Model the fold of this input.
Amino acid sequence: MNSIKKHIFVLDTSAILYGFNPQIIEGEHYITPKILSEIHDEKLKMILEISISLGKLKIRFPKHENIEFIKNKAIESGDILSLSETDLEVLALAFELKSEGLDPVIISDDYSIQNLCTLLSLSFRSIVTEGISQRFLWIIYCPACGATYRSSEEITNCKICGHTLKRKVYKKEKI
Done:
């Protein structure tokens, strides 16, 4: 007997803004509650509300422990400075669905989300961009005095001179 693979999509805000419509694309579609709060266009809000009422779009909040796990991975990779709480929830939800034995795909044009997906073995697809072709690991540094910090340190200003910290790639890997 042939089994049909069910497509499961976890959408970030960029997916919705760039036109990914759960009413048209076949499969199960998930968002987190924070995604709704980031949509300000009335037409898009209406599409989302209709999609939710028709059961084409599900709102699900990931478990706290999964959000914390993702946050720690983002700190390790150095992506934490570029990820919002919403991004962390999207990643945590996809991670949670995968741990339930499902095969989700994150729809996102956010390079930091995609980078973390490669580290977590989560599938992703872009809408408008080509997506990443390399995985990056970042280092946090001070552009003024040159001090470097582990990406796991949650600081935004240099402990030595007080300047705002930046990040740069210290390791690239082909994916």
